[in-house]
């Protein structure tokens, strides 16, 4: 008798919904003969509903092809099930690999990821503050927000995790790799090959990673290396265009901020008729996939992108669950020597 009534009600509601082309939670509640709250609890997976009612609600939902509005359900549960990520440049494969790891972890926990690309044409802090109202947590990847802006974000209710940046006096959990030690090892490798005059083809002056890598290049004075800085932005095209300027300093090696910079540098050197590494050595940083598939293969530093993404998500999980979290130690990196470096040319 109950099943017959449910079928009749569902059919009536289904006919009505097809006319209105919209099935709501109220439609399902009416079809199942229960309250909207009961439907909400069933759709959210709650075990507090009697099995018979749960079956009735599910049957009505299936009959009506009802799909709950995840945003509305999230608001009812006190969670949007959205995670935000702001990156400087989605075209950079390094950021893609870190975000991909976080995306897999987030998806397994039932979260979607909203990604904003910060290209420098808009204010990153404004973008972050706007995004906070649509997410349960926000990850800032290689952020260039000034310290005062980071402190403002730390005062917000929505959790924020800082990745690839360490700042004293900022109350945010942070994940970063050991850029300084790795870059110093790379400079030591060049010193062993007889290089004494190098140019550092830098990244954005606003990037913490660039500051750490530059600090190591300057410290390589202890190896007898004299360095000159040519500011760039970590992209292929800009670095390509700055190689001519770098060569005016007559270096025997170009130390590039990242692998993309190195790809651009090698391309320009080839156009100028120079051979790498016979005429000049080139190094990168990050070990993106491309670094292993150019000619010559790139001497670089393996930045553990998957580990960075995993640690960032672990921090965010703790923050969302209102558990105390602690920033992990710097993630170690590894120098990989390939064919783009050789003995210093005379």
Description of the structure:
This protein has helices at 2-20, 25-32, 36-43, 51-64, 70-77, 93-108, 124-132, 147-154, 179-192, 208-219, 236-247, 259-271, 305-320, and strands at residues 82-87, 112-117, 137-141, 160-163, 174-175, 197-201, 226-230, 253-256, 281-283, 300-302, 334-336. With 346 residues, it is α/β, with parallel strands linked by helices. It has a five-stranded parallel β-sheet with strand order 2-1-3-4-5, sandwiched between helices. Helix 2 (25-32) packs across helix 3 and helix 6 packs across helix 13 (305-320). Residues 1-11 and 13-20 have low confidence and may be disordered.
Question: In a few lines, what is going on in this structure?
Answer:
This protein has 346 residues and is of the alpha/beta class. It is built from 13 helices and 11 strands.
